[in-house]
Amino acid sequence: MTCPFCGQSEDRRGLHRHLVAVHVQAVEVGLDEQKQRMYYRLDCPNCEYVVSQTVRPRSTDEHFLEEYRAEIGLVAFDLLLYHLELAHEAPAPEAVAGIED
Ligand SMILES: [Zn+2]
Ligand SMILES: [Zn+2]
Questions:
Q1: Cα of 7 from ligand 2 centre, angstroms
Q2: Which end of the chain, N or C, is less packed with Cβ atoms under 10 Å?
């Protein structure tokens, strides 16, 4: 698979690690207006698709949210990878060659 942010080529597991390590700042983390729930948001760099969810934080302290970003990144990037596989990854050439109709 290809990293949508920098074009680096990795297998799925490697790309997940790479995204969390290098592109974690792409995940936006914040509190909703009532400061009751935390949300994260991750935009697909290739289209309008957005991974977004609210989560119940253990704390609403801003410093805590920043530390929590890496943990949330694991989840958000996993969801983005599913989207990339479905929407942006060309099927492997051998898979295409195997289809005869
Ligand atoms: Zn990258
Ligand atoms: Zn997309």
A1: 14
A2: C
